[in-house]
Amino acid sequence: MEERKTRRPSQKPAAIRAAAQRLFLQHGLQQTSMDTVAAEARVTKQTVYRHFGSKEQLFVAVLKSLVVERLHPDLLEAVPAGAQSGAELEDTLLTVANNILDHVLEPTYINLVRILVAEAREFPELAELFRTTAIQPMAAALTNLLGTPLNEDADHPGTVPAALRLFIAPLINYEVEAMLGDPTTVHKRARAELPAVVKLVATAIKASPDPPR
Questions:
Q1: DSSP 9
Q2: Ramachandran region of residue 95, left (φ > 0), alpha (ψ -120 to 50) or beta?
Q3: For 85, phi and psi rounded to 5 degrees?
Q4: Which residue in 45, 22, 29 sits closest to 126, CA to CA?
Q5: By the 8 A CB rule, do 138 and 69 touch?
Q6: Which residues 6+ apart lie within 8 Å of 202 measured at CB?
Q7: What dihedral do alpha carbons 42, 44, 47, 49 form, nearest 10°?
Q8: CA neighbours within 13 Å on the CB side: how many for 105?
Q9: For a tag on the chain, would you pick the N or C end, based on fewer CB atoms within 10 A?
Q10: Extended strands (E) in 84-167
Q11: 96-155 per-position pLDDT tens digit
């Protein structure tokens, strides 16, 4: 296949991801081949493999482009410099939680996660790839956010990971509800409930034991 001449090399990964996203949503993971992705993107199959080493890597890249690569700047913008406590911490957590849900409850992303869950048994490496390339970077950003107000040290091991799970748990619950129902309806309800949810989380975090003086 002759590749489209007007497309710059730097534009090809985005074009491939866009083509793959359409095909994955239409046909699922198993029924989508790298050949059909190449044809849809109007590039050669060699070009697809050069940018994305496997179909599983391409699928995860599509998910990342919808959430992780957009979400990280939002997370960074939401975190003010310096230690946080009281209302400031609560406001920051609410902003971050809303930013996360705006992305992970987006209908296209939810539909792709449904495919991931449905086909994880057939593609066991897919879930691990998604965890290491998408979930872990986001968890690291949130750990940095929570580490400042908690001021964890060697005398209080595990405080930050516990706070991270406490913060993430209700967000995951909303995501699961969206996968089982209508993402738009769940998102609207989550927006209304989040202030109370985050207030409880912030209260628990602020109640964590202070490091010894």
A1: G
A2: alpha
A3: -155, 165
A4: 29
A5: no
A6: 89, 90, 93
A7: 110
A8: 26
A9: C
A10: none
A11: 899 889 988 999 989 988 998 888 888 888 888 888 877 887 788 788 777 665 555 545
- Spatial neighbors of 199 by CB under 8 A, at least 6 apart, are 90
Instruction: Compare 82 and 118 and report the one with higher pLDDT.
Output: 118
The burial class, CB within 10 Å (0-12 / 13-18 / 19+), for 83 is exposed
Please report, as a single letter, which amino acid is at residue 51.
H
Domains of the chain: 9-53 (1.10.10.60), 63-206 (1.10.357)
**Integer CA distances (angstroms), 95 to 30, 101, 102, 143, 174, in order:** 37, 10, 11, 16, 16
Task: Give whole-number Cα distances, 90 to 87, 146, 149, 192, in Å.
Answer: 5, 11, 11, 16
Distance CA 197, CA 184 (A): 19
Taking alpha carbons only, the member of 26, 53, 56, 50 closest to residue 40 is 26
